Amino acid sequence: MRDIIRMIVVLAILAACGGALLAGVKSGTAEQIEYQQLKFVKGPAIKMILEGCSNDPLVDRFKIKDGEVERSFYVGVFDGQPNAVAYETFGKGFGGDIGVMVAVNIEADELLGIGVTTHSETPGLGSRAKDDPSFGAQFRDMSIKEPFKVKPDGGQIDAVSGATITSRGVCQGITDSSAFYSKLKPQIIEQAKAFAK
Are 170 and 142 in contact (CB under 8 A)? Predict the structure, then answer.
């Protein structure tokens, strides 16, 4: 009986040590993982949709707590004014969630552009929402306050050929982001002021 108790105690100690080690590794690498995602996954989309800004939006960024969610905003400075922000939102595509980076002119509440960051869509079909610049270009200068829909649903956006579900997911993600953008806009404007040149 003592041997069984001893084995249980040893197993519990090993499990606790293993758990603590894994938690320490996760905590210690969280910042590096966030940097890698920013540089290689989100960064290209941010730089594309904030093209022409005079600052580095990957450096000039801030976070705002929105209930349980902490949202990251990337500031674009144009003509010395921090009048644009980019943020990530998500929509439901054919293969799962689609990450969409959205850039908004905070003075006019108009989109400067969108860029798909992550997806699990079919290569050659849904994946074209990320690769086809003409799809993202359709959103430019549209009001963030209006709902976005593809033309088959009575909207104004041409769906990617053969990937209507993916296109709907992108539109839905942008439309859904309008609510938290509007709610957080006073804080966004206040935080963005710090980046004036």
Answer: no
